[in-house]
Each structure stands twice: as C-alpha cells, then as structure tokens.
C-alpha cells in the first residue's frame, strides 16, 4: 500500500505543510506546482528532500487559483487547461530532475480533482496535459470520469482513497463544508486500516467498498504530520507493507 500526502503547499514566507515530517513517513509526495500553492524555492526544497529520502515525486496540478487554494471551481477551456497542466508538470520536473528523481505521476488538486472526476471534458484536458508532458501515471479516485478517460488514453491509474475524509454511501467524499467531512486523527487511523482491507464505514453507517492502491493524508489538515505518522505505524503494525506504487 502506498501512503501519499500533499506537500509544498506554502507560498513565500507562509508555510502550510510540515514537509520534513511528512517526508519521514509517506512514500509518495504530491507536490504543489505553483498554481494553488508552492513557489520555486519550495518546489526545490521538497524535491531535494524527497529525493534524499527515496520518496516518489508527483505533480499536484490545479486550477490557477492561489487566492482560493485551488478549491474554487473554474470554467477553463479544455485546450488552455491541458497547457496549464503540462506547464505545472514542467515546473516541478526542473527541480525534481536536478536532484536525480523524475516526476513519476500526476494528481489533480482540489476543485480540479472533483470537477475532472465528473466532467469528461475537463478529464480529457488533464489527460492531454499529461501526454504533452510525457507523464503516464495518474493518482485519482476509482469509479470517476477521470479514471475512465485516463484508461482510455493509455494512462496507468492508481486508485486513491482518503484516510482523513468521510465518505457518503455512494462512495463520494463528504463536501468539506459539511459537519464531519474531515476526520479526527484517531478516526483517520481506523479508516486507513479499513481502506487497506477494501471497505469503509460511510457517514450513514453503511459499509461500502472503496478501491485503494494509495492512501492519502491531506498535508494541510491540522496535525497532518502526526496523523500520517500514526497511519504509517498502524499499517506497519498490521503487517501491511507500505511502499511507493512506482
């Protein structure tokens, strides 16, 4: 099982994620590429640290929305969005390759993740951007338009599930604005162990199947590094091998 987290989500003097602590426990790093967070120095530092620790580097691409942290849905023309996805991958690749590690995969962030999950046009734009940048692995939720389009275009899909987010009975994430959408650290650990067995308890109490090759802990959540460490420890204790999917 892979364990991933969103890293590099600061900007200038503002630091949001505890990158050093997260890199001690995760196996894949989704690195912000400057559109929702991140700046050149942060990209450099995260890539250097990830390469040193043997953590896989992935591009966390987003709508161009620094003010809204990439969580505001935008109607970006498909051709433009494809170029923006490729541009972000390219920015990260410069620093990753400088430290001897490739950009191994792409994971959309925030509003783009959810929009492309249901909107085939936006999903195809993400896939086209990946093709321009020659990245052939996508991290996303199973059962989405993004997964389907990616597979149709020859992109390898790694199914992602979330330790720290609540699920609805139909397998979607509970919107962040609703009570209980973000789980406590204790609940996140329990849910991670459930995900390793292929099912979780939805908000209504139903047990649902959730496909997971990689478990995510959001790096911007309070105490994220401690939560990720606890999830890693719990998986290790259960004899579940935690390793990057690449």
Task: Write structural notes for this entry.
- The protein has a single domain, classed as Glycoside hydrolase/deacetylase (TIM Barrel, Alpha-Beta Barrel), CATH 3.20.20.370.
- The chain is built from eight helices and nine strands.
- The strands form two sheets. The protein has a seven-stranded parallel beta sheet with strand order 4-3-2-1-9-6-5. A two-stranded antiparallel sheet has the order 7-8.
- A hairpin with a 5-residue loop joins strand 7 and strand 8.
Q: What's the layout of helices and strands?
A:
Blueprint: E1 2-7, H1 19-23, E2 28-32, H2 40-53, E3 56-61, H3 78-98, E4 103-108, H4 110-118, H5 120-132, E5 137-140, H6 145-152, E6 156-162, H7 185-197, E7 199-201, E8 207-209, E9 214-217, H8 224-237
Parallel strand pairs: 1-2, 1-9, 2-3, 3-4, 5-6, 6-9
Antiparallel strand pairs: 7-8
Main sheet strand line-up = 4-3-2-1-9-6-5
Let me know the largest β-sheet. 7 strands, parallel
Structural class: alpha/beta
Please bin the fraction of helical residues.
25-40%
* Beta-strand segment tally: 9
Q: What is the residue-mean pLDDT, rounded to a whole number?
A: 95
